[in-house]
Design a protein that fits this description.
Elements (H helix, E strand, L loop, with lengths): L1 E3 L6 H15 L2 H7 L24 H24 L16 H18 L13 H20 L3 H4 L1 H25 L2 E4 L8 H10 L2 H12 L3 H4 L14 H16 L5 H4 L2 H16 L5 H6 L4 H22 L4 E4 L8 E2 L2 E2 L6 H13 L7 E3 L1
Antiparallel strand pairs: 1-6, 2-3, 4-5
Helix pairs in contact: 1-13, 4-5, 5-9, 7-8, 9-15, 11-13, 13-16, 15-16
Length: about 375
């Protein structure tokens, strides 16, 4: 399985963070200015949220995007299916499900019922079911990981696990800001929240994203079928030099800079450019990046983080579907064939989102987040 290796930042780690933040935020300003839209539309706490009218559905674009997704994923799926999985037992002793795992299960079940029902006695709290639902999920997934491997983030790296919550809140507020440029999702039935209650409620909900994805990634690593095929996969063929990191940084920054100008065409940049920027800055400082593992032929961090985000994404969309306070999508070219509120091809966006979650979590580390036992 994979094991979390937690290290606190050294000097270079601390120095790289302001540059990452500046590289993610400052490029947005020219595009916002040149877009011709009122600056008020891009204020973080503006209400109501802006809804962008997008290009209608296109069969050629839908088929083309489906082909790209399949050509990317099918080779990895084929490798995983044909790989001979070792039956060697795990060196870790399995542990019983702890009490907090059962608590999490009760929280998930209770919050799910409350989220999808409309009890009159619960009406004052009806909009606040997201956070307890996902806190319950996080407890359950850590308990399942502990049961399978004797290891989980919550118990074995508690300081790092707790730190993921505030980091996650900041992380998702940034994506809400990017969404103000592209208008791919908007929220329903949040109008009666006060000016202070709304950001606090949102921040609590956003704080669960990284803990959920990272905990799921570690849990998925306990399945040999998902981890063993990618331990010694094809090494990333291109060696990274200072020039490649600089070019990667420029590409990410340019993508963010023009995002507001052509949102119908560039909205996928939201899920790709930040990964390039974070990896480039960390690479310049000689720190671990997602590409470091790929160069060594270890594709597990990339594959498992992508799968973890897709796994969480299914439950995000499921539990969102009939909740009173929920989000809806408006995605150019491919907004058809919905599974819950999400267009079918939209689920592919969760795959690079998983890479983003891992890249952000790695900001807190001076070595790989996940390593060999």
């Amino acid at each position: 399985m994979l094991k979390t290796s937690v290290h606190f930042p050294f000097t270079s780690q601390i120095l790289s963070v302001p540059l990452i933040i500046a590289s993610l935020l400052l490029p947005l300003l020219p595009g916002i200015t040149l877009s011709g839209r009122p600056m008020s539309e891009f204020l973080l706490f503006s209400s109501p949220p802006r809804t962008v009218v997008h290009t209608s559905f296109s069969w050629p674009v839908w088929i083309g995007m489906l082909a790209i997704i399949l050509l990317t994923l099918l080779p990895l799926l084929f490798l995983a299916l044909r790989h001979q999985v070792s039956s060697a037992p795990s060196p870790r002793l399995k542990a019983p499900i702890p009490w907090w795992g059962w608590l999490g299960l009760v929280m998930v079940a209770g919050s799910w019922v409350l989220a999808w029902s409309r009890f009159s006695w619960f009406s004052a709290l009806q909009q606040h079911t997201f956070t307890p639902l996902w806190l319950g999920y996080i407890l359950v997934i850590n308990a399942l990981c502990l049961r399978r491997s004797g290891f989980c983030l919550l118990r074995d790296h508690r300081a790092f696990f707790v730190a993921l919550f505030p980091l996650s809140a900041v992380f998702w507020w940034y994506f809400e800001y990017l969404n103000s440029l592209v208008g791919n999702w908007h929220y329903i039935n949040l109008d009666n929240l006060g000016p202070m209650e709304s950001p606090i409620t949102a921040s609590l909900s956003y704080s669960t994203v990284l803990p959920a994805v990272l905990s799921t990634m570690v849990w998925l690593s306990t399945f040999p079928r998902l981890s063993q095929p990618f331990t010694k996969f094809a090494p990333w063929p291109y060696r990274h030099t200072m020039l490649t990191w600089v070019m990667m940084w420029i590409l990410g920054v340019l993508g963010l800079g023009v995002l507001a100008l052509w949102p119908d065409y560039l909205y996928p940049v939201v899920w790709v450019a930040p990964v390039l920027v974070i990896s480039a800055v960390r690479g310049v400082f000689g720190q671990y990046t997602l590409f470091s593992s790929l160069q060594e032929g270890d594709w597990r961090p990339a594959v498992l983080s992508a799968l973890a985000a897709l796994f969480c994404g299914f439950f995000w969309e499921l539990w969102n579907f009939r909740s009173l306070a929920h989000w809806e999508y408006s995605i150019p070219w491919v907004d058809r064939f919905h599974l819950f509120e999400m267009p079918l091809l939209g689920y592919a966006g969760y795959l690079p989102f998983g890479l983003m979650c891992l890249s952000v979590a790695n900001i807190c580390h001076t070595s790989p987040l996940i390593t060999h036992d």
